[in-house]
Amino acid sequence: MELSWKLALKYLRGKHNESFFSFITVASILGIVIGVMALIIVLSVMGGFQKEIKDKILGVNAHIVVLKFGGGIKNYPSLITKITSDPDVTGASPFILNQILISSSSGVMGAIIRGIDPETIGNATRLPQYLVKGTLKNLDYPREVSTEEGQKIKVTGAVLGKELATNLGVTLGDLVTVISPTGALSPVGVMPRMMQFQVQGIFASGMYDYDSGLVLIGLKSAQKFFKMDHQITGIEVSVKDVERAPQIAERLENKLGFPYYTRDWVEMNYNLFSALKLEKTVMILLLFLIILVASFNIASSLVMLVTDKRKEIAILKTMGAEPSLIRKTFIYTGAIVGGTGIIGGDILGLISCWLLSKYHFIKLPSDIYYITTIPVQIDPVTILLINIAAFVIIILAAIYPASRATKIRPAEILRYE
Questions:
Q1: pTM (2 decimals)?
Q2: Residue scoring higher pLDDT (14 or 325)
Q3: Which of 121, 185, 190, 330 could connect to 402 by a Cys-Cys bridge, CB 3.0–4.6 Å?
């Protein structure tokens, strides 16, 4: 073992009468442990939170949406063929989107209604996977049902979010009335357009906004209800690589030309993910302050060590020790203290993340947050970067005490010995 390492380990052991220095060393190690552990936990939780939100958004929504300036799209079958010819596109499905009121015998709620093609919706989104009751098939198939008044009427199917169905007090087979605020003009003003549907399915995406405010109906039923003839609002598109969705969207827009334009999932959720990124950056800066404070403690303890060991340093110098040996001795001392703290922080941080991901003992209110439990995503690259950054800060903190040790003059220290 190199002499510098031997001296560093010897100086760290301390003597019985050096308990104060030992306390400072332990406090420095604990500071590094807490800082590294907090960084690992916070960044893993924020990474998991971001991934969970992205997965849920992309489960209900497509990666790219193709729209048209000035209104609905008429010739959508040929447009879908043109879109799916792109090698990066994995599927496409037409949709109609509008705002409505939905009522039952228990109440009225505002919601977003989406007309979908049950045959192709699975190619563009993961909505079919979120069904907990019923089916998406045959949404446009008319069925005869009896109203509360005993009348026989023909209705088509609708699929509601779990929270919305709970709030309306409906389940499979119940009737709901969809009300559009835009309707025909009459002598008394605009008459809202109304249409009844039978609840055919219930989905749960795990995202409160969708589960409490989204209604799915068949594409033909939506066209009939909103008087759109054979038009649609747009086309949902899924791609192979979601991270390249902005580039693929731009290519599709150039390929389709005016009056069509595209919007990708990054653009549609820009504010949300920008806020998450900003929060992550601020948390990194705040938590690195803990490591910075701990590194100052290490520097302080090394200065005290240099002062305490000045006689040994003077003897080493008189024996011909190079300044580089003395400098490395105290840098290694700081590295051992800091490295111990980093390893301890890694172990405690990873254990905490594992416990959070396995037992979910922290619950979140679904009506405030997008998810109900704290998600955790452990990223080895992030942990490596935390360790490197913390170690660099510690080494920088050890440079000044190490340089101070090399400037000790043996003649002055040993004069009275």
A1: 0.77
A2: 325
A3: 330
